[in-house]
Write a structure and sequence with these properties.
Blueprint: E1 2-5, E2 15-18, H1 25-34, H2 39-58, H3 62-67, H4 70-93, H5 102-117, H6 121-126, H7 135-140, H8 145-148, H9 150-164, H10 168-177, H11 180-221, H12 227-233, H13 239-253
Antiparallel strand pairs: 1-2
Helix pairs in contact: 2-5, 4-5, 5-9, 10-13, 11-12, 11-13
């Protein structure tokens, strides 16, 4: 059972404790293969993760001061590992579109992981902790559907990029599981979208807003396929350096 107690400020802290009622390794492996969370618990986690994401966006010091502290890193690691296990088993059992809670959970979970790891070697290292598969390996070995479904791909790849960028060990783990060229090509795709939108899209957005379509223009910025969504996950200032690093890793891989 996973228990989450979230507090922030005034001497409060975040505590996450995964609990198991059996010590049998074979029984544990069997439970892991079938582990999923009930819908009420998933809804709770979606709210909790979204709250953490909002806090991280407002105050970046929460990462080193709270989630990255020695007292909480391991617990946070266990929480993410269990949620990734739930995601893996859920997607293997049924098509994602049949679980209306899956996409909101993925968006909040992957966004939190990205914010937690981006340009932070210490936090990236925690994703290589533990026995195989580590959380980073879990991310890279999610079902193939995550790489062929455009929506799942748009949610996952920014997370893998954030979790490995600037960290040689993490990038090597990623390169062992998938081609870093995929990450570089994905980022270039968003760069091209940004260039096109800046040259011809601004006028369209202006016309849309003047015609009373401001709400539609805002909604479009939240489209997971757009460069704007990617920019909200990984700021544009990192894109060029990421492409170079992932291209180099892909060349070394072969």
């Amino acid at each position: 059972m996973l228990t989450v107690v979230m507090h922030y400020g005034g001497g409060r802290s975040l505590s996450v404790r995964p609990r198991s009622h059996s010590r049998s390794s074979s029984g544990g492996a069997l439970r892991a293969a079938h582990f999923t969370l009930p819908p009420p618990v998933v809804r709770f986690f979606i709210i909790a993760l979204r709250t953490l994401v909002s806090m991280l966006r407002l105050d970046t010091n929460i990462v080193p001061d709270v989630l990255g502290s020695d007292a909480l890193q391991m617990e946070f690691h266990h929480l993410l590992s269990h949620l990734l296990l739930h995601v893996t088993n859920t997607v293997q059992k049924q098509h994602p579109s049949k679980d209306r809670l899956l996409y909101p959970l993925l968006d909040s979970l992957f966004t939190l992981i990205g914010l937690y790891t981006l340009h932070c070697n210490a936090n990236q290292e925690t994703f290589s902790w533990g026995k195989n598969p580590t959380p980073l390996q879990q991310l890279c070995s999610l079902p193939f559907r995550f790489y062929c479904d455009p929506k799942l791909r748009s949610l996952l790849l920014p997370t893998i990029a954030a979790a490995s960028f600037g960290n040689a060990r993490s990038l090597q783990i990623v390169a062992n599981e998938l081609s870093p060229r995929m990450l570089a090509d994905f980022i270039r795709e968003k760069e091209n979208g940004y260039v096109i939108d800046e040259t011809v899209g601004s006028a369209a957005v202006s016309d849309e807003a003047s015609a009373g379509g401001a709400a539609a223009a805002i909604a479009r910025t939240l489209d997971v396929y757009s460069w704007r969504y990617f920019d909200s996950r990984i700021p544009r200032q990192y894109w060029s350096a990421m492409c170079e690093e992932f291209d180099e890793a892909a060349q070394q891989r072969y």
